[in-house]
Amino acid sequence: MKKKIVTFGEIMLRLTTPDNLRMQQSREFLVNYGGSEANVAISIANFGGDVEYITRLPDNALGETCLAELRSHNIGTRHILIGGHRLGTYYMEKAAAMRNSKVIYDREGSAFSELKPGMIDWHAAFADAAIFHWSGIDAALTPGLAEVCKEAITVAKEMGLTISYDINYRKNLWNYGKSAQEVLRPLMVSSDIMFGSEGEYALLTGIPAPGFKATKSGETYDVKAYEEFCKAISQQIPNCKYIYIALRNVMSSEHHTFAGVLYSNGSMKYTRVFDIDNVIDCVGVGDAFCGAMLYAQHAYEDEQKRVDFSTAASVLKNTIAGDYNIVKVSEVEGLLAKHESGEVAR
């Protein structure tokens, strides 16, 4: 049985202000690389999954560094295109206390943003794959990339792949005259697996979100309301087999609560609430969920295990600086065992 997962997106240079400095205070930056779909691929690879990443990189030292970075995590790169002149960049000002994080994108004219339909041989890329994963960020960058996403989804469907879609709404990226709803709604109906926050689902579907208000571990939340929410979503996307939602409540930059739900075949699975009281870096938490979820699709038959594993992996990402969730299966399972027993897993 084919188990390879193919992800598609832009890996970028991440420049972060040190020591919680504001952008205008900083005279140096911490250097990392990351991007939603690359982060997903790295999570899958760290769990031991078979994953290929597709992007376009410039023919320069930054592009070469990205290739080396991906290969160091055992990610397949044979379908990556080389061309263009720029690597996309984003600047990160980390949150502190009640001050929110701030991101500045510099992606216009990047090698990836110049992709057009016909440039990627999707039939070759999907030849030995089971799942294709993409996100709304890809379609937000340019009209050409929105068409590339449509092209990839069409070929993947024709070849019998499962389509995984992360809503990944970023309002600051939608600048070419079309709304996210206008572009993404026609694409999302092809999804077999969908992931997003409750706010992202509400944005695309127009269905009001219940609102996650948990403030501590062990606290209950309105599972019935989320079941009705998912049922309404499924009526708009009837072909989608799995609807995953990440639930987060932010009390401060360092104190979050987190839970996950999965709706499939009219059945609701949900996790307990995790209390994260020392958040190191919340960038890539959704990507960590997606990576763990895609790995779990092949690793576990039990749907409760899938959503538990995905949620616990996301919780661990909050403790890791940078974009990547550099954790192993044993660490995720260890957190679940510890959380269930209240004792240290030995």
Architecture overview:
A hairpin with an 8-residue loop joins strand 7 and strand 8. The protein has a single domain (4-341), classed as UDP-N-acetylmuramoyl-L-alanine:D-glutamate ligase (3-Layer(aba) Sandwich), CATH 3.40.1190.20. Helices cover 36% and strands 23% of the residues. Strands 1, 4, 9, 10, 11, 12, 13, 14 and 15 form a nine-stranded mixed beta sheet that branches. Strands 3-2-7-8 form a four-stranded mixed beta sheet. Strands 5-6 form a two-stranded parallel sheet. Helix 10 (303-317) crosses helix 11. The chain is α/β, with parallel strands linked by helices and 346 residues long. The model has no long low-confidence stretch (mean pLDDT 95).
Average of pLDDT: 95
CATH topology (level 3) name: UDP-N-acetylmuramoyl-L-alanine:D-glutamate ligase
Q: What separation lies between the terminal Cα atoms? A: 35 Å
Classified in CATH, the superfamily is Ribokinase
CATH class: Alpha Beta
How many whole angstroms does the radius of gyration measure? Answer: 19 Å
CATH architecture, by name, is 3-Layer(aba) Sandwich
Give the helices and strands as they follow along the chain.
EEEHEEHEEEHEHHEHEHHEEEEHHH
Structural class: alpha/beta
